[in-house]
Design goal:
Length: 293
């Protein structure tokens, strides 16, 4: 079996790499098929997914059985003023991978986002709910999903949210560092979603791609909270002395609008391979306990 992971230097790509190297995740062992698999991890420097010619040539030469696309333009605010590049990475990139994958009948898993939804409501969004993004980031990610579905038969679209992990920048590290430095923080309390540990997401991705259960999936930590709730738990579990005050999102000036409610329901996981995603609090505690070691 040949596996290609794009966006390999991002936090999810590196988490997948880590699990494959160890042969197991915190949630359990991974399939023996990965033991003898030929695996390539590529970043933008090695493969520009926005260039169709390069993608076609690379994939036609390597001929992977499975492609996992973790590449994305994820700076939500910067996307607003850099629309063309956001469109190229988040929409054209997945389209190019889909076109190339279809030619060799490879499976393609693409990671998407809760930001494809409007943020209106108070019931977790299911896979069949109609997307209605409110930012350039969300719009380009949704178009990437659509291009994928139009150009590839063997696809998995995995929407996730509020991702954090051992590698790269994320909300958990930001809060921990700011709390130590300032001793007092203000965090928005009017946006709700699902914190997701990259370890748990990577495990489910590696489990899913070995199946023929194609379609759209939501894969987030179970349970929901506000950013304020999330920050409070980070400080509590990390044992940092810091006070936190809740504020409304209109107090922070940002280029991109955020969905006020973007919780996802892992319905497709439950109905197919099973939902082993931990409750967000349990996963966060495990992550911080591991950091403290």
């Amino acid at each position: 079996m040949k596996l290609l992971v794009t966006g390999a230097k991002g936090q999810l790509g590196m988490q997948i790499h880590s699990i494959l190297d160890k042969g197991k995740s915190e949630l359990g062992e991974i399939d023996d098929l990965y033991i003898d698999a030929e695996i390539r991890y590529v970043s933008h420097d090695e493969l520009d997914i926005t260039n169709l010619k390069d993608v076609n040539e690379y994939i036609d030469k390597y001929k992977p059985d499975i492609i996992i696309n973790c590449a994305a333009y994820t700076n939500v605010d910067k996307c607003e003023g850099d629309t063309d590049n956001a469109f190229k990475v988040n929409a054209i990139g997945p389209r190019n991978l889909a076109i190339a994958a279809q030619k060799i009948s490879a499976k393609l898993l693409h990671v998407s986002t809760d930001y494809v939804f409007s943020g209106i409501g108070n019931i977790p969004f299911k896979e069949y709910d109609i997307p209605q993004p409110v930012s350039v980031y969300g719009e380009t990610k949704l178009l990437g999903e659509q291009y994928l579905r139009e150009n590839c038969n063997k696809y998995f679209i995995v929407r996730t949210a509020w991702l954090y992990g051992k590698y790269g920048k994320n909300f958990v590290y930001t809060i921990m560092n700011a709390a130590k430095e300032k001793g007092h923080l203000e965090v928005v309390n009017d946006q709700r979603g699902n914190p997701t540990y990259a370890e748990d997401l990577a495990y489910h991705i590696l489990k899913l791609v070995l199946t023929d259960e194609y379609g759209i999936y939501h894969c987030t930590g179970n349970g929901e909270c506000s950013w304020y709730d999330f920050a409070c738990k980070i400080i509590e579990y990390a044992g940092i002395k810091c006070t936190i005050a809740p504020i409304t999102s209109d107090k922070i000036k940002r280029a991109a609008k955020r969905p006020s409610y973007s919780s996802l329901d892992n319905m497709m996981l439950r109905c197919t391979i099973g939902d082993e995603m931990r409750n967000w609090e349990d996963a966060l505690k495990a992550f911080i306990d591991d950091l403290n070691k």
